[in-house]
Specification:
about 625 residues, alpha+beta, six-stranded antiparallel beta sheet, five-stranded antiparallel beta sheet, elongated
Length: about 625
């Protein structure tokens, strides 16, 4: 049986990175940052759980700080008033447990492309996770996490780790070192710094990633610690005792006794050590022995991909929104790449400031997007972008959104953006060929179609499909590109018609009197232009210009086509040679005597038109032009 191998992905600056993804943390953009994890309700739950041992804290406490704030002396666990007194320009933001859950889920989704099972939560020791088991709700998870964080500084908190089971999978990418390299690049594409480690169990790997001497903030696999199979105890030996799941006061007591490292604790008598470790004695003793049987709870990948960013300060221009959307589409592209899928539609919701939107808008609605009233989000600007071909590249996803957003004027300051990738389909795999190195990339056509759809409308972008009809103007139609069945039918019909025409041409060349296919117009007008009654030598007006019909050539006749409709068609189709200036025909010489060519123009300009005569009224119409 293969030894279980687990990768721990620790994101030490996750909360700070989520704040920075919203935009600048301060007007200057260079202020040190401190983050409080949990909303008001979650904070109250933590204080209620903490009140079992001590009275509730009257002020907020900092949970995470960035490197700049740490250089000023700000530390997690400080009260906000103390940190503000220490650093006057300290920026303090709040991140909810729901945002932490969503960010960890994105990392787990990206990591699933390299392993069998990803998890953001561990099961109970000795229990086996049940595949497909329902996860607790976000509200319940937030309350449980807040209460757990209030009870223990280690263990389930501080909720910055994603685990990946790579048992028997590392050889597919060239070994464990190469796997960590690839995994670090994928996490970095989401905008996170990660510390990676591999061990025989999730707790061992998490301790190595969080406290390992060779763990790098860049997440490079060559610098990440890897515990050899069966050597977990030796791997965590040089780590500090804080790497073990013990209470903070227990770790402080051990440090005061001179027990600084895990290997120092492992050399002490087991009976004496067990009496000092507190409620997690069994778990700690197993880790000291190198055993870590804690199971992983599988992360359930959502079908729809959602990204949401809330702004601390309202945004009033499209440039700032595009900056945020660029990061959101980049994260969506990373998740799609890990799935091997592509997106066919992007739904964008820009939440307006509630009071200003109601003051400015009232009951008015925008032309390009629907202004909806939501009880939770308030007024919002909503629109969607359809992709004629499913796309998965970050730049390709951003281009149609940018084209759409540049034509929309914000009616009020935006307080958040919600982006949903729907119509998920399998990504198109294109075989590599020599054309990839040329100036024109064949893969850029789907992105161009998506941008055109956003500019002129998805209903105006498609492929021409041959239809079975008697009227020439009805023999082709525009079919949506995403309609694979219609495209396949169009291709099959085109091939069949082309084969029939080639066969008829070949037979016509060998057999005398064979009927050739009737000529077709090269360009049809959107609306036919009435010409009145026509004949050879008649004068007609087209686009404010006068022309004379030099000759007519009958093409075909259709009689009572579509007789089941209220307007059946009975027409005679012909090709007409239109001339202007000095005509050559005698019949037109007298009637066009007053027409003279313009200065600098040729004495005669002509064109071959496609016209039809309505047999019911005798009136002629210009329908198009021939080649």
């Amino acid at each position: 049986m293969a030894v279980r191998r687990i990768v721990a992905i620790v994101l030490p600056q996750l909360a700070c990175e989520l704040v920075k993804q919203r935009g600048p943390v301060s007007p200057s953009g260079k202020a040190p940052l401190a983050v409080i994890i949990g909303g008001d309700e979650e904070r109250r739950a933590a204080l209620a759980a903490r009140s079992e041992r001590e009275p509730p804290a009257p002020v907020a406490v900092i949970d995470v700080v960035d490197d700049e704030a740490r250089r000023y002396g700000v530390r997690p666990g400080q009260k906000v008033v103390e940190a503000a007194a220490l650093v006057a320009h300290l920026a303090i933001h709040r991140v909810t447990f729901a945002e932490i859950d969503a960010a960890l889920g994105r990392v787990a989704e990206v990591a699933l492309g390299l392993g069998a099972t990803a998890s953001i939560q561990l099961g109970e020791q000795g229990a086996t996770p049940r595949a497909g088991a329902p996860r607790p709700s976000r509200g319940g998870r937030a309350g449980e996490r807040a209460a757990s964080a209030a009870r223990s500084p280690w263990g389930d908190g501080p909720y910055d780790t994603v685990w990946l089971d790579i048992t028997g999978a590392s050889h597919l990418v060239g070994g464990e070192e190469a796997l960590l390299d690839e995994l670090g690049e994928r996490v970095a594409a989401l905008g996170h710094r990660a510390r990676l480690a591999i061990a025989d169990g999730p707790r061992l790997a998490q301790a190595l990633a969080r406290f390992g001497a060779h763990a790098s903030d860049g997440g490079r696999g060559a610098e990440a610690p890897i515990a050899p199979p069966g050597k977990g105890a030796q791997a965590i030996g040089p780590l500090p005792v804080q790497a073990l799941p013990v209470e903070r006061d227990v770790a402080s007591f051990l440090v005061r006794l001179g027990v600084l490292r895990v290997e120092d604790l492992a050399r002490l008598p087991r009976a004496q050590v067990a009496a000092r470790l507190g409620p997690r004695t069994t778990e700690v003793m197993e880790l000291l022995a190198g055993r870590d049987p804690v199971p992983l709870l599988p992360y359930e990948v959502p079908r729809l991909i959602e990204e949401e960013v809330l702004f601390d300060e309202p945004v009033e221009n499209a440039e700032s929104l595009l900056f945020v959307l660029r990061g959101m589409t980049s994260r969506i592209a990373s998740r799609l790449a890990a799935r091997g899928e592509a997106c066919g539609r992007l739904n964008v919701a820009i939440a307006y400031d509630r009071s200003i939107a109601r003051l400015r808008l009232g009951d008015r609605e925008d032309d390009d997007a629907a202004l909806l009233e939501d009880d939770e989000r308030g007024p919002s600007l909503r629109f969607h972008v359809d992709m004629p071909v499913p796309l998965s590249d970050a730049g390709d996803l951003l281009r149609p959104i940018k084209a759409k957003l540049e034509r929309i004027e914000l009616a009020a300051p935006a307080v958040g953006v919600h982006l949903i990738a729907s119509r998920i389909a399998r990504a198109r795999q294109v075989q590599l060929d020599l054309s990839r190195d040329r100036s024109v990339d064949p893969d850029s056509l789907p992105a161009l179609l998506a941008e055109l759809s956003a500019e002129i409308g998805a209903e105006r972008v498609g492929v021409l499909e041959i239809a079975d009809a008697h009227r020439p103007e009805a023999r082709s139609r525009l079919a949506p590109i995403e309609d694979d069945a219609a495209t396949a039918r169009s291709s099959a019909a085109s091939r069949a018609r082309a084969a029939a025409e080639r066969s008829a041409a070949e037979q016509g060349g060998s057999a005398e009197g064979a009927e050739l296919p009737s000529p077709e117009p090269a360009r049809l007008l959107a609306q036919p232009i009435p010409l009145g009654r026509v004949g050879r030598g008649a004068i007609v007006a087209v686009d404010r210009h006068l022309y004379a019909i030099e000759r007519l050539s009958f093409v075909m006749r259709i009689d009572a086509v579509e007789w089941w409709t209220p307007t059946p068609a009975s027409r005679d189709y012909a090709r007409a040679w239109l001339v202007s200036g000095a005509p050559s025909g005698r019949a037109a010489q007298g009637r066009l005597g007053e027409l003279r060519p313009r200065d600098g123009a040729s004495s005669s300009s002509c064109g071959e038109a496609w016209i039809y005569v309505d047999r019911a009224t005798g009136e002629a119409f210009l329908q198009g032009w021939c080649a």
